[in-house]
């Protein structure tokens, strides 16, 4: 160690001179290769890149906010469009009903189907007309195509309807061609099929005949189409008669309400309460 310091002290001038010479050569090489300029350029490029990235990030944040605003605006517009389309469909359905209504039915009141209970045995309809609108229990519900059902319950603003496609529904019918009478009913299951009871095998009823409501009914307006016969199968005493209902119950929107046509004296003779003799 002492020898090393001794040599350093003896030759320190040469060491310092060599160090300074190396530094000079290094500085000269840097200046010759334009390293400071390159470092400056690289720094500028880095700053530009970072500024661009930050700008892009800000732009993306702005785009996200703008997309959110447009999404909310589109949601509001879609809601308005759906309401307008719904109102237009209802208006068109009402106009079709009015155009298809025969002159004899023009005095009937119009109601909208606002709800329905689905079942394979007991379907029910709810109308937006009630006692304050003149609706009464046992009023006939129909469309220009045919019979829908009868009003069974009435509140101030709504009324319930038991349709043909209910297992408890019965209505007296007659063929417009052969004059064969029977009782229309529904046994559950398919909505597009109903049956005519009490048709004797001696009847001349045939496929294609239209069945209408009769004066025998205690509630229905006579002459309203109920369905068309699609099959007649003779049994031991009575035929099994299948009909296709005149009304498509899957597409009911608006219906007509016929004024009460039943006669109090007739109902009393049949053992049924007349209008006004029971709580409506």
What does this structure look like?
The chain has 280 residues and is of the alpha+beta class. Among the domains are: 2-32; 109-269, Thrombin, subunit H (Beta Barrel), CATH 2.40.10.340. The chain is built from four helices and twelve strands; from the N terminus they run H-H-H-E-E-E-E-E-E-E-E-E-E-E-E-H. The chain has helices at 2-10, 12-32, 35-100, 264-269, and strands at residues 109-117, 124-127, 140-143, 146-154, 159-163, 171-175, 181-185, 194-200, 210-213, 225-234, 238-245, 254-258. The strands form two sheets. It has a six-stranded antiparallel barrel. The N and C termini lie far apart (124 Å).
List key phrases describing it.
280 residues, alpha+beta, Thrombin, subunit H, six-stranded antiparallel barrel
Helix content: 25-40%
Element pattern in H and E: HHHEEEEEEEEEEEEH
How much is the average pLDDT? 79
Strand tally: 12
Radius of gyration: 45 Å
Here the CATH topology of the domain at 109-269 equals Thrombin, subunit H
Biggest sheet architecture: 6 strands, antiparallel, barrel
Oligomer: single chain
> Strand fraction band?
25-35%
Content-based structural category: alpha+beta
């Amino acid at each position: 160690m002492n020898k090393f310091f001794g040599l350093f002290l003896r030759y320190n001038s040469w060491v310092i001179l060599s160090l300074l010479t190396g530094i000079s050569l290094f500085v000269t090489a840097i200046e010759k290769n334009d390293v400071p300029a390159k470092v400056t350029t690289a720094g500028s490029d880095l700053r530009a890149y970072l500024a661009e990235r930050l700008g892009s990030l800000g732009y993306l944040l702005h785009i996200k906010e703008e997309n959110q605003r447009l999404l909310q605006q589109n949601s509001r517009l879609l809601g308005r469009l759906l309401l307008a389309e719904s109102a237009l469909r209802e208006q068109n359905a009402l106009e079709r009903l009015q155009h298809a209504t025969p002159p004899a039915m023009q005095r009937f009141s119009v109601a909208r189907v606002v709800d329905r209970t689905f079942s394979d045995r007991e379907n029910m309809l709810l109308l937006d007309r009630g006692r304050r609108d003149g609706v009464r229990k046992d009023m006939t519900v129909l469309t220009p195509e045919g019979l829908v059902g009868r009003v069974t319950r009435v509140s101030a603003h709504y009324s319930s309807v038991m349709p043909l496609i209910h297992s408890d529904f019965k209505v007296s019918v007659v063929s417009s061609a052969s004059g064969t009478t029977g009782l229309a009913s529904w046994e559950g299951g398919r909505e597009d099929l109903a049956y005519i009871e009490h048709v004797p095998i001696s009847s001349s009823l045939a496929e294609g005949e239209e069945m209408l409501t009769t004066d025998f009914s205690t509630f229905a307006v006579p002459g309203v189409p109920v369905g068309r016969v699609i099959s007649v199968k003779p049994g031991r005493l009575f035929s099994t008669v299948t009909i296709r209902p005149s009304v498509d119950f899957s597409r009911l929107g608006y219906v007509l309400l016929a004024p009460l046509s039943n006669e109090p004296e007739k109902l009393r003779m049949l053992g049924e309460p007349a209008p006004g003799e029971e709580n409506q």
